[in-house]
């Protein structure tokens, strides 16, 4: 029997300190889960390269990879793939492929290659993860004939929520005359997404990015628009300072709520949609699943189980609408969740939110992929990052 464990969205090296697997006491739960597993798949956004220079995120990830390598030993495999936050880790392979003569074959749903071909970063990771055997897959891999795993960043091309990357994909689609309805191959999706990542990677090569690019501004805007209550964290202000800050926040939220529908209408009129102004929790789930189902149909994945991450919303869980987790082409969707503590998406009760971190997916020789939640015994106090308290 072959057992594969899939983990996504580690975001190791993020400046906000939400990357839980940087902390030894939280890595222990995942390392224990590796007992009896033949293969570990890190399904993209392994490194957080959106926040600052790549070497900083890489060094922050070293203890994790060294411990995982020792846990897997020399007879088991570590497969790494890339997402939108760490697309740079496979760019050397993509660049070399583009220069081949004669012209290379079109990109497929799975390409496998060595870390040294992928990038210097993955070559270094492979050295740290020794003695485990490290390989790279992009944009995903067939875990077994009926289970396909990919990060899921291609879904941004079909998302109806106006995220920054969805808008960027819309712009690239207009420039390249490749609207969402015309995308039907891996190369089509790469054409409208990779330039966005390259631009962002160039900005963060030498210095930290601002809140607009690192995602913090997006989270604040989502909370201001009423997307969810989230977890409130005190900043230590008191008395009049707290009242003044509350008043400023209220004023800002009112301005954002008034401007948002106008912005959405403008995006649609400019041909960058279709997007809508509904950003409720239910709509985030529904829109993400619909978009991933569309990608699965366009890549001809059939009725395979499609394991993905990207949205950080694990599932399906009991109570989730079953029809939403089935793509229009028959794909059976499974989201592997994340390993980041994103307070804005959480509720006061530990483990209650589907965004609660610590989820992974176990795939065996037969049967559907199984969600495993490894941090349900942890409290908010144990997971909350120190920087969030400052």
Descriptive notes:
This protein is α/β, with parallel strands linked by helices and 390 residues long. The protein contains twelve helices and ten strands. The chain has two domains: 4-205 and 279-389, 4-Layer Sandwich (Purple Acid Phosphatase, chain A, domain 2); 218-269, no CATH class. The chain has helices at residues 24-33, 54-72, 91-98, 115-118, 120-128, 164-176, 186-203, 211-214, 216-224, 239-269, 281-298, 380-383; strands at residues 4-7, 39-43, 77-81, 110-113, 133-144, 147-150, 305-308, 332-335, 359-363, 370-373. The chain starts with a strand and ends in a 7-residue tail after the last helix. Strands 1, 2, 3, 4, 5, 6, 7, 8, 9 and 10 form a ten-stranded mixed beta sheet that branches. Helix 2 runs parallel beside helix 5 and helix 6 packs across helix 7.
State the gist of this model.
By secondary structure, this protein is an alpha/beta fold. The protein has 2 domains: 313 residues, Purple Acid Phosphatase, chain A, domain 2, CATH 3.60.21; 52 residues, no CATH class.
